[in-house]
Design goal:
alpha/beta; Rossmann fold; nine-stranded mixed β-sheet; about 45% helix; about 15% strand
Length: about 550
């Protein structure tokens, strides 16, 4: 395989480690704090996690720990969507195991959690690891979205772990995947098995974080990749001076990506889904907000601009959310009647007879292409496939129509041409930034220390991330500490709570303080491409979000 020059050089990059992990392996001790509680629903979670609830926080300190030199056999899983840095988590785990004892083994389960259920795995070797150091993607062992839910799946997972004589399983994933890790840790102990389970926090959406997990890996790389592209488009917009660019960004449940990209590039308009929901804005009000910027900039002869849109925006607009919920219920309850209707027009007319009056009015008013997207096949959880809904095109069309009305009324005299973009997959497998390469390697090494020290039901944690890497604080957080009970699919289930954009937080307030200026003036910032080599202030900086949160 022919390698790029950058790839060859990235193989040689040596990720930086926290000081507590840089000493001799047997000099890394684990300091345990006081018992912990879940963020809510303590009694229900205590009853559900009889074996693992209430574990203490773990921090790595200097001290003798001969357990780290024992021979271990560990399995690792990549779960869910790709995020830059996943390979470095595996690399850090592998290097830790081999430093502890060269006889230790690491198995990679192929295709995600299903690899554990079906015992499809490969033993990871030194040459295999070296081919993936500091690279993007999950192609080393693949990933998957299988959930370990049924008694048969749990039993099969335990059977596989026993056949391989595993001491532990490491699950690299987001909030759902690590909820699964907590359930697996509990199951193993309930079955009198000492096989440990450790998680690592992954998701480019940035919604797996709290006071102990300051960032999920991949977010840093993804937002810097998207911001480069947004900056390029903004510069083109300012050069051509004739297009409004509507850019939809990853982020179904949370708008952390849109917020960070706005802070990095300073677009004219950016929506934060959580604010739209909190203010109960209608679709029309969202359109009016864009039109307000278009009209005022036209008065300055600036008929161009940039609008950022979170992927999940439509589900946060209350009237659209209600419409989607009603459509889901009707289509599920009358599945055959709906599927028997062949044309879109017939389906639309039939649905309108079942919808509430406000939802029927909204559904009738939507452009046909967007209405069709709301009726597409649901995902396995029964949800609309939001990534396939072209919200940017909906808003482009509605803005153009509204501006036509304003032009007829004589309140708008500019020109409006728009172009739509969706940045999603472009950021999921990018070469990890130095920050993500270092952070992920540290997470993997931390997972090794947690395993060798005999802990289970923990999420690897690295804190103090705005400081230089040697000052980072490594340890582990009990998975049950981050959980609450949520009603899903007709039952209350334990889940790790998603971290949404905090409207009282410093990052959002910094954005809100400047957006009126950005709406009127051309204030674009052009971040440029990710830099891997050079001064630390260029190559190793964390996100603006993280710096503001920790300032």
């Amino acid at each position: 395989m022919e390698l790029s020059a950058l790839q060859k050089v990235r193989y040689t990059y040596k990720p930086k480690l926290p000081g507590s992990l840089s000493r001799l392996v047997t000099d890394i001790a684990v300091q345990l704090g006081s018992p912990t509680e879940s963020i809510s629903d303590q009694e229900a979670l205590k009853a559900r996690f009889k074996e693992t609830y209430g574990k203490p926080l773990a921090t790595f300190v200097q001290g003798k720990n001969d357990a780290l030199s024992r021979r271990l056999s560990v399995g690792v899983i990549l779960s869910g969507g790709q995020a830059p840095g996943g390979h470095n988590v595996i690399t850090g785990l592998y290097d830790g195991l081999k430093k502890g004892n060269p006889g230790s083994k690491l198995f990679g389960f192929l295709g995600g959690p299903s690899g554990l259920i079906d015992n499809k795995q490969v033993e990871i070797s030194g040459p295999m690891i070296d081919a993936y150091r500091n690279t993007g993607g999950f192609d080393m062992i693949g990933s998957g979205r299988t959930k370990i839910e049924s008694p048969e799946q749990f039993a099969a997972s335990l059977e596989t772990a026993k056949k391989l004589n595993l001491d532990a399983v490491v699950i690299i994933g987001g909030d759902d995947s690590n909820t699964n890790a907590a359930l697996l840790a509990e199951y193993f102990l309930a079955k009198d098995s000492n096989i440990q389970v450790i998680g690592c926090p992954k998701t480019i959406d940035g919604d797996l974080k709290n006071e102990h997990i300051e960032a999920s890996f991949g977010f840093d790389t993804a937002v810097k990749t998207y911001s480069e592209l947004i900056g390029n488009i903004a510069r083109d917009s300012n050069s051509a001076k004739k297009y409004w660019h509507f850019i939809r960004l990853m982020g179904r449940s949370a708008s952390h990506i849109a917020l960070e990209c706005a802070l990095q590039t300073q677009p004219n308009v950016c929506f934060i889904s959580e604010e739209v929901e909190a203010k109960e804005l209608s679709l029309g009000q969202v359109v009016d907000q864009i039109c307000g910027s278009v009209v005022k900039r036209a008065e300055n002869k600036e008929n161009f601009g940039v609008v950022l849109i979170p992927e999940g925006l439509v589900e946060f607009i209350p009237e659209v959310k209600k419409l989607i919920q009603e459509l889901n219920d009707i289509m599920a309850a009358h599945e055959k009647d709906f599927s028997d209707l062949e044309s879109f027009a017939a389906r639309r007319d039939w649905l309108i007879t079942w919808l509430s009056d406000p939802s029927a009015y909204l559904f009738k008013s939507l452009p046909e292409e967007f209405a069709k997207e709301l009726l597409m096949d649901r995902d396995p959880h029964g949800n609309v496939r939001v990534s396939q809904i072209e919200t940017e095109k909906l808003l482009m069309g509605m803005v153009e129509s509204r501006l036509g009305d304003l032009k007829q009324a004589g309140t708008y005299k500019g020109k409006f041409s728009s172009l739509g973009h969706f940045f999603g997959y472009e950021g999921r497998c990018a070469f990890p930034t130095n920050f993500d390469a270092d952070y992920c390697y540290s997470l993997g090494f931390s997972a090794f220390v947690l395993i060798a020290s005999g802990l289970t039901g923990y999420l690897a944690s690295v804190k103090n991330l705005t400081a230089p890497a040697d000052q980072w604080i490594a340890g582990g957080v009990p998975l049950t500490m981050m959980m609450n009970m949520e009603h899903r699919h007709g039952a209350d289930k334990p889940v790790i709570r998603k971290a949404l954009v905090d409207l009282d937080g410093k990052p959002f307030k910094a954005f809100a303080a400047m957006r009126e200026t950005w709406a009127l003036k051309t204030c674009f910032v052009y971040p440029g491409s990710v830099q891997y080599y050079g001064p630390g202030e260029i190559c190793d900086q964390p996100t603006i979000t993280l710096k503001l949160e920790k300032s």
